[in-house]
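ligand=erythose-4-phosphate
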Amino acid sequence: MKFFIDTANLKDIAEAQALGILDGVTTNPSLMAKEGITGKNNILKHYVDICNLVDGDVSAEVNALDFEGMIKEGEELADLHEQIVVKLPMTKEGIKACKYFSDREIKTNVTLIFSAGQALLAAKAGATYCSPFLGRLDDISTDGLNLIEEIRQIYDNYGFETQILAASVRHTMHVVNCAKIGADVMTGPLSSITGLLKHPLTDIGIAQFVADYEKGNK
Ligand code: E4P
C-alpha cells in the first residue's frame, strides 16, 4: 500500500519524507488555507515547493466548478511539475474533466467520493485515483471501510486500473484496516503514519536491552 500524507504543511511533509516510506502528498483548498497559503501565485509556488520535497505524486485540487474552468486550472496545475496530479470534484463536470485529462495522459484524482456508484464513474472516466472519504463517513455513523471494500470488489471484477486512495484517514487503525481490505493508497495526517511506530512492548523491550547492555559493559 502506498502512503500519502494529507497536508500542505511543509514541515510535516519533510518529516514523513525523511522516514523513507512516503509515496506522495494530497492537498485540498482547506488544507492550503490552514497553512495560510492564499493568492494564486503563492498557491502555485507552494505546490512546486511540495513537489521538490517528495518523490511521488502530489494532488493539487482545482477550485473551478465548471468544465472549462476545471480544464484551464487543471492544465495550469499539470504544467507546474511532472509530479502534479489534477484533483477534481466528483460532479458531472468533474467526471467530464477527468475523461479530458485521462485522454491526454494527465494524472487525475477524483475526490469527495461517498458511494460505490461514484467510484465506478471515476474509473470509467479513467481516473488515476479515486478518493473515498473514510473518516467523513465514519463521522456520520456510516461504515467508511465498507465503501472501500465495495469499490475494491467492483474494480477487481472489471480490472479497472484506477487506484483506490483511502482519504480522510484519521488514525492508525484506519490505515491498518485499509491495508487489510486492499486499498491501494491511504492518505492521512502525519500522526496516522508516525502512530504506526508505537507499541509499549517495543519501548519496554528497548529499555530492558539498554539496561542489560549497560550492566554488562560498565
Ligand atoms: C483527501 O484528499 C482529502 O484532502 C482529505 O483526506 C480530507 O480529509 P478530512 O475529512 O480529514 O478533511
